[in-house]
Automatic annotation (TrEMBL):
It comes from Lactuca virosa. GO terms for molecular function: endo-1,4-beta-xylanase activity. GO terms for biological process: xylan catabolic process. Residues 564-859 form the GH10 domain. SUPFAM superfamilies: (Trans)glycosidases, Galactose-binding domain-like. It comes from the Eukaryota. The keyword Hydrolase applies. This is GH10 domain-containing protein. PANTHER family: ENDO-1,4-BETA-XYLANASE, GLYCOSYL HYDROLASE. SMART domains: Glyco_10. Pfam families: CBM_4_9, Glyco_hydro_10.
Length: 916
């Protein structure tokens, strides 16, 4: 930090010893008692200027006569000094005490230093989207050749996006000297709860193997330290040594360290391992960082931290995070993963308290022409101008295409001028990826959601089914813009969406998919930015019509007196529309998680604890303990639960012992699973996902025949007739997967019903990217034609920007709530580090609600009805309200009466009698 040369540095050698006052000595004694709670990193400069920054000046740490201190020099302005970012180590509402030991000196011998100079401690408070603020904590007057104590307190009423502490003040040319700086939140009552500071230090002992392999052990294998391997070709990337694992006979064998007592619950930790592989002629393999946890009640947990593909050519970094929800009696971190016989090499391992990411600022988006097509010459009135063939196919113009926009584009754009009737014809295709293309680099804006819409048709003479796909080449990455399966010579709609969230060099859009030799036509091709907030306004109006009911309150009292004219104030306490979340066994050990869940959700589903591979990972060894604990928690809090899932049709999710069964033994095992699970929990799960993802897998059907699927439903219904039995699948709502179009889903449901399966509900998982309301709404409408209730069963949205994620979430919540066929929404989690997709959480790992979480709460609050007015001459009061529980306050001249009532779903006006 700072310059390493120049006249001022030479002068440091001539500093005379600075004298201490008795007051300074007293401070030294006091500071030692609170050092453990100091939020300042490297407060005594024992690690040089690590964690510190100089503010447009120079800094160096010197040691003279057993005194180490920082010297901040080459100061051209009074505000220049030494600073440290303390954002992640400070909380609003707490009183912090600052104590620093400071001095001053003249930078040049000929510069006259006045008898005193002020040193000031200041906070810089940065807020996204608003002006930076400055808070002066304290100042002290310092004389040359004396150390002085700088002492003060401060409280932040709210948490800024960034908090920087810095020392400033003396005139230009005067050096600031700092021996130590301590900031604590200790009070006269002791340390404030929640104020203990987690030092930003590696909790791994001997992380670079300087002390051999002390503190390390092999997990089912042998470990050793090396300075080189492979005839000197493998050397450490950092330091002098690395460790190897040998004699690995299982994938889970590896190197480990017991970190019990060094990790705290409810704190997020980051893990960075520098790794590679060696031996057995394997050039690449996955390495996993895993945490093994044993709880005080002897429960075992395995927490996946990170996975990355390592090679035998170079070192790479494996990075991830973890958090312990509950107390642990033992915690071990280890590396595993490569095939047996392959050595894991570890150069270093760092586990420390994870830095908190600053909140996302709203994306800077300007001059967006919502609804305007960015495709050049879309109507082909200028021939193929603006288009080019991808590959050596040929492009021509044809006529006879539809004159109207595809339905989902019309839903978004509203009335629109007729199309030209011209289309582009791609012929002489020798590869599936060949087709018409355009460059759209300069037309795409970051973080804007684009809708894709087009008519497509196969050329004459084609047979069989073919996928047609709108694809984007974003630099070297492929992005799906929508696809449709075509198996005849009619025009078909293709719809989809995309969003780009990283800086890019070039973007090409192209249409591809049919088999080589098959020509196809494209017409009415549209890519346009979507104004999602405009649709929100429409949906709000529709929601009031669809979800609210006319309610009449009939009042009566004991003396039958007239109540006309008395004022009533109606407040809805809870909307009864189901909004639930996925939870796991470890989550309920975290009081903060439980508090948020119970406050904002009224249904639940278990993430893994009811799945067959969890309850019977080894044949005959059952684990219902986790599911029992979760069910008891939900029952205690009156939370209805979905049962997910009895079977999972995708082969990769089936445990090995089940895969290895013969046909007859598999049939027996399936029946045992049904009878064991359904009898144990009869009447306790409101729903069951009977055979998960049957559009994407066929494990049981391939081995046991087509009849196994309806039979699973029949047996489940016989064992527990109280539970509604669901199909459940993904990508049904977004148009990006031809295997799970609404049409195919409906065909599957009807086929099950024709074979006697009592299908009672449709599960739409809802793992979606860049959702567009008209597409989601259209697909929900199609499913609604079955007459079956629809639930979003595993909803999550993903964006690196919290504000965009909030918009995505609002799209899905509003489209679900406005659709009369949708009867519930279940999120696939909400807490960071406990979700299947990154950048999808509503609450950060240590409990802070982010922008997406705030939007979720705001939308839910909007779905509460309130009214006020006066009782009429018939002792009645009328209003429109959502289903749910209410409180009504009747205000008289001398008294106030409060009653509660419930509005239930009804096909007509709801009448509620209230007796006072």
């Amino acid at each position: 930090m700072g310059k390493k040369s120049g006249g001022w540095l030479t002068l440091l050698k001539d500093h005379t010893k600075l004298h201490r006052s008795q007051k300074s000595k007293d401070w030294n004694m006091a500071s030692s008692s609170v050092t453990s709670t100091n939020i300042i990193q490297n407060h005594d400069f024992s690690n040089g200027l690590h964690s510190w920054y100089t503010n447009s000046c120079d800094g160096v740490v010197v040691e003279k006569q057993s005194t180490r201190y920082a010297v901040i020099a080459n100061r051209k302005e009074t505000w220049q000094g030494l600073e440290q970012d303390i954002t992640t180590r400070i909380s609003p509402g707490l009183t912090y005490t600052l104590i620093a030991h400071v001095g001053v000196s003249a930078e040049h011998p000929h510069l006259h230093l006045h008898s005193h100079a002020d040193v000031i401690a200041t906070l810089k408070l940065e807020y996204h989207g608003s002006e930076t603020k400055y808070m002066q904590i304290t100042r002290t007057s310092v004389s040359k050749e004396r150390w002085e104590k700088l002492e003060g307190t401060f409280v932040l009423p709210e948490k800024p996006d960034r908090v920087v502490l810095y020392l400033e003040g003396p005139a230009p040319g005067v050096n600031i000297l700092i021996e130590s700086l301590v900031v604590t939140c200790a009070t006269s009552h002791g340390i404030v709860e929640g104020c203990n500071v987690v030092e930003d230090e590696n909790i791994i002992l001997n992380p670079n193997f300087e002390d051999g392999v002390n503190n390390w052990s092999g997990r089912g294998c042998t470990i050793a330290r090396h300075d080189s391997m492979g005839e000197g070709k493998i050397v450490p990337k950092f330091g002098k040594y690395f460790a190897s694992t040998t004699q690995r006979t299982q994938n889970w064998n590896g190197i480990q360290q017991d970190i019990s007592g060094r990790v705290k619950r409810k704190l997020a930790y980051s893990v960075i391992a520098t790794v590679r592989i060696f031996g057995n002629n394997v050039t690449s393999a996955d390495i996993r960082a895993t945490l093994w946890v044993q709880t005080p009640d002897s429960r075992e947990q395995y927490i996946g931290i990170a996975t990355a593909q390592a090679t035998d050519k170079e070192w790479m970094q494996l990075e991830g995070k973890f958090l312990l929800n509950g107390s642990a009696s033992k915690v071990v971190v280890y590396l595993e993963g490569p095939p047996p016989g392959v050595d894991i090499l570890l150069n270093s391992l760092v586990v420390k308290h994870a830095e908190k990411n600053p909140p996302s600022p709203p994306p800077y988006i300007e001059n967006v022409d919502y609804g305007v097509n960015i495709i050049t010459n879309s109507d082909l009135r200028e021939g193929t101008n603006g288009w080019f063939p991808l590959g050596n196919c040929a492009l021509g113009v044809t006529t006879g295409s539809p004159h109207v926009l595809p339905p989902t584009a019309r839903d978004t754009l509203g009335p629109h001028e007729s199309l030209s009737g011209h289309g582009i014809h791609a012929t002489n295709r020798t590869q599936t990826w060949m087709g018409p293309a355009q460059m759209i680099t300069d037309k795409i804006k970051l973080f804007v959601t684009y809708q894709v819409s087009a008519w497509v048709r196969l050329g004459h003479g084609s047979s069989g089914s073919h996928n047609v796909n709108v694809a984007l080449g974003v630099d070297n990455q492929w992005v799906n813009g929508g696809q449709v399966e075509v198996n005849d010579d009619r025009w078909h709609e293709i719809s989809g969406s995309f969003r780009i969230e990283k800086e890019f060099g070039k973007i090409m859009v192209y249409v591809q998919g049919p088999a080589p030799g098959i020509s196809f036509m494209l017409a009415g091709f549209q890519i346009f930015p979507v104004d999602r907030k405009a649709r929100f306004k429409q949906l709000k109006q529709q929601t009031d019509k669809i979800r609210k009911q006319d309610v009449t309150l009939k009042f009566s009292n004991l003396d039958e007196s007239n109540m006309q004219g008395k004022m009533v104030i109606i407040k809805q306490i809870q909307n009864s529309f189901p909004i639930g979340s996925c939870i796991s066994r470890s989550n309920i050990d975290n009081e903060d998680f439980v508090s948020f869940f119970l406050k904002h959700f009224n249904w639940a589903v278990f993430g893994n604890e009811l799945k067959w591979y969890w309850t019977e990972s080894q044949q005959g060894n059952f684990n219902y303990r986790d599911a029992d604990d979760l069910l008891e928690f939900c029952n205690r809090n009156n939370i209805p639960v979905r049962g997910h899932c009895i079977f999972w049709e995708v082969e990769d999710t089936v445990q090995n012992w089940v895969k290895n069964l013969s046909k007859s033994d598999l049939a027996i095992a399936v029946n045992n699973r049904l009878t064991g699970l359904l009898n144990r929990y009869k009447g306790k799960f409101k729903h069951y996902d009977v055979n998960n993802e049957m559009l994407h897998g066929s494990f049981y059907r391939d081995r046991l025949g087509n009849e196994i699927r309806p039979n699973m439903f029949k047996i489940a219904n016989k064992l527990d007739p109280s539970s509604v039995l669901f199909v459940n699948d993904y990508h049904v709502e977004d148009g990006c997967d031809t295997r799970s179009s609404p049409e195919k889903y409906i065909d599957q449901i009807f086929d099950l019903q024709e074979h006697g399966a009592p299908v009672g509900g449709i599960g739409v998982q809802g793992h979606i990217d860049s959702p567009v309301g008209s597409i989601v709404g259209s697909n929900l409408d199609k499913l609604g034609l079955t007459g079956l209730p629809i639930w979003f069963t595993e909803l999550d949205v993903s964006s690196v920007n919290e504000h965009v994620r909030a918009d995505d979430l609002e799209v899905m919540m509003r489209e679900a709530f406005v659709n009369p066929g949708v009867e519930g929404i279940v999120f696939w989690g909400f807490w960071e580090l406990f979700m299947s997709r990154e950048n999808s959480h509503l609450v950060n790992a240590e409990g802070e609600v982010n922008e997406a979480g705030r939007r979720f709460i705001e939308v839910k609050k909007e779905w509460l009805s309130h009214a006020h007015g006066f009782i009429d001459e018939e002792n009645e009061f009328r209003f429109r309200g959502f289903e749910g529980s209410y409180e009504v306050e009747i205000v008289g001249i001398c008294e106030k009466i409060v009653k509660t009532f419930v509005v239930e779903k009804s096909g007509s006006e709801v009448v509620v009698s209230i007796r006072l």
